[in-house]
Write a structure and sequence with these properties.
This protein has 221 residues and is mainly α. It has five helices and no strands.
């Protein structure tokens, strides 16, 4: 009887050791998996922050350059309506319309998360929603504004300048301002000025959106 009791006890101890071993192994495996996910999430967040920092700098640069283009276009209108002497019309007043800057986003990390289906690696639901809104709505709005201006410049403004505006071969000015005073030119330049001004406001708003989302990400690290 004692021998049988010892056998049961030994069997129970062996079973307990096996169960404990499996439990510990499972716990360690879960810990390793969670640690891996945590590291992956941290890397994605750091990459998103880097992308947003680049976009903030790029947007700010494009906005400042656009301010100069808007100012030159405003001066051009002023010259046209005040009959300024031809010497005031520099090359830059005309050529700035087709050298306008555009915003090219650094959204590689977000696209990688979307394309790989890994967006849920970001544990914060709020952050996921903020990113979707930022890239799919706000970035898209700015992209549309850029496309409107590109289309206006490429299809209408640039061809008009090439065919109608004569630049002085030596001096930094145009030869004749009358082509800038036609209804077509006034409408084109007016549309360009208004679109550029509206887009610069959108650039400023997107900068603030990027800063806000960047702060949300930083607060979760």
């Amino acid at each position: 009887m004692k021998t049988k009791r010892k056998t049961y006890t030994a069997y129970f101890m062996e079973l307990l050791v096996v169960v404990l071993g499996i439990t510990i192994a499972f716990t360690l495996d879960n810990y390793a998996s969670n640690s891996k996910l945590d590291r992956e999430e941290k890397l994605y967040k750091e990459a998103l922050i880097s992308d947003l920092e680049k976009d903030i700098a790029s947007l700010d640069s494009a906005r400042e350059s656009s301010k100069k283009v808007i100012a030159l276009t405003g001066e051009l209108f002023n010259f046209m309506y005040t009959d300024a002497p031809i010497e005031r019309y520099t090359r830059a007043h005309v050529t700035s319309t087709y050298t306008t800057p555009y915003f090219y986003s650094n959204n590689g990390t977000y696209q990688s998360l979307i394309n790989s289906g890994d967006l849920k690696v970001l544990s914060s639901f709020e952050l996921r929603q903020e990113l979707v809104t930022l890239y799919n709505v706000h970035y898209a709005e700015v992209s549309r504004a850029d496309e409107f201006i590109k289309d206006l410049v490429t299809v209408q403004v640039y061809p008009y300048i090439l065919s109608e505006i004569a630049f002085h071969p030596i001096e930094d000015r145009i030869i004749d301002s009358s082509p800038l005073k036609t209804n077509q030119a006034v409408n084109l330049l007016g549309s360009f000025y208004n679109l550029m001004s509206a887009r610069n406001i959108e650039y400023g708003e997107l900068i603030e959106d990027c800063k806000r989302v960047k702060k949300i990400i930083e607060d979760t690290l």
